[in-house]
Amino acid sequence: SLVGEVTGETVWADRTEDVMFNWYPIAFTPGWKELHYITAGNQVNLDARTDHNYFNRPPQAAYSAGTSYRCCQHNASFGLPHFCESLVRTDADGALVFWLYAPHRGRAVLSGGRTAEWRLTTEYPFRETAHLTVSGASKLRFRVPGWCRAFEVRDGARTLARTETPGGWLDVSDVADGAELDLSMTAECAWRTYPRHGGLSVERGPLTYALGFEPVVSRVPRPQFAWDGAKWYPEERDLSDAATRETMVQMELPSGARWNFALDRDTPPRYRTRPFTEDCFRLAAAPAEIVVKGRALAEWTLQDNQPAELQDSPAYTTAPAEDIRLVPMCCARLHVTVFPEATTTAARGFQWRRTPPSTDRKDRPAALPLIPESRRWPKGGEK
């Protein structure tokens, strides 16, 4: 967002919203009291027992309210305040600049000393409309998101400004004091293709959609891990002091849950809204969904308790097509967001191979050496 302030390029706001609306909420538990270190596109187990082949030493996926993740524990809380501070800016021409979109109200001093006040009522990012009440500002600038097919500002039945160019800005001048304006943005379901293996995600507006699962939740003592030269493994002997150690929240797939699907790109996604509530970042309360056609891909298996790395698409499968319900990624702590593309034509597709259930860890870094007492930071922070 700060880069966008300097350059005025709206793509930086698009990326800010991607982080805050897709990834940030599921870095926390639904109660926003615990967080984990790694949020990945495909995560179907967030347990504390497994080395999930992330570069950092385990545990990295279970949620902690204590000191497990050091700087993340105190830095993560700055995300929302910084986001809110960046919602609206002012420019040298005396305009209010709407840079990011979220429900809020604010006040700002414009160039020349005039004070502007406004209130934006919206269910964005789950809806693409907003109602703006503004006073003290005759000039307004609105960021047009890169996904937006049309952006319109209306005063009742009168259209004040409209553009069908994604990205960039839409200016509105001669705004009456106390004006009540309606904003509308046109969004469409879109496939996003990743170049490495041809994987697919489904997007609409600022949101990425995912196959989500209601997890089995448990609280466990934080395990201690040791390095044997090839992999990390939990030390069972540390369970004896479990009562005095920090606990972690882990989330695991319910028994029998199916996650390994390839998507049929030839069938258009079907979008539909669901009731909106303020508790919108929980799976059961997801305010929207997209239904796509998918086919089971038995060769796509778990590796280190997570979906194995994607192989090349389209993936050949003879499994029947079925409806797959996707929800906003931000509602699903356990989720699959990047899928292979499916094909039933052997000549066109790639035959996937099953991967080993555990990866070879010989390329992982050895355990960090203990810092000698003489080199440790003194207690109290004195140098």
Quick overview:
This protein is mainly beta.
What structural category arises from helix and sheet content? mainly beta
Tally of DSSP β-strands: 29
Alpha-carbon distance between the termini? Answer: 36 Å
- In helices, the fraction of residues equals under 10%
Strand content: 25-35%
The shape, in one word, is globular
Quickly count the helices: 4
Describe this structure in words.
The chain is globular, with a radius of gyration of 24 Å. It has four helices and 29 strands. With about 375 residues, it is mostly beta strands. The chain starts with a helix and ends in a 40-residue tail after the last strand. Strands 1, 14, 15, 16, 21, 22, 23, 27 and 28 form a nine-stranded antiparallel β-sheet that branches. It has a six-stranded antiparallel β-sheet with strand order 6-7-8-13-10-11, with no helix packed on it. About 35% of the residues are buried.
Break the fold down into its secondary structure elements and pairings.
Elements: H1 2-7, H2 11-23, E1 42-43, E2 45-46, E3 63-64, H3 71-75, H4 79-85, E4 88-90, E5 96-98, E6 104-109, E7 115-122, E8 129-135, E9 140-143, E10 151-155, E11 158-163, E12 169-172, E13 179-185, E14 189-193, E15 200-204, E16 207-213, E17 216-221, E18 225-227, E19 232-234, E20 247-252, E21 261-263, E22 270-273, E23 288-296, E24 302-303, E25 306-307, E26 315-316, E27 321-328, E28 334-336, E29 342-343
Parallel strand pairs: 5-9, 26-29
Antiparallel strand pairs: 1-28, 2-20, 3-20, 4-5, 6-7, 7-8, 8-13, 9-12, 10-11, 10-13, 14-15, 15-16, 16-27, 16-28, 17-20, 18-19, 21-23, 22-23, 23-27, 24-25
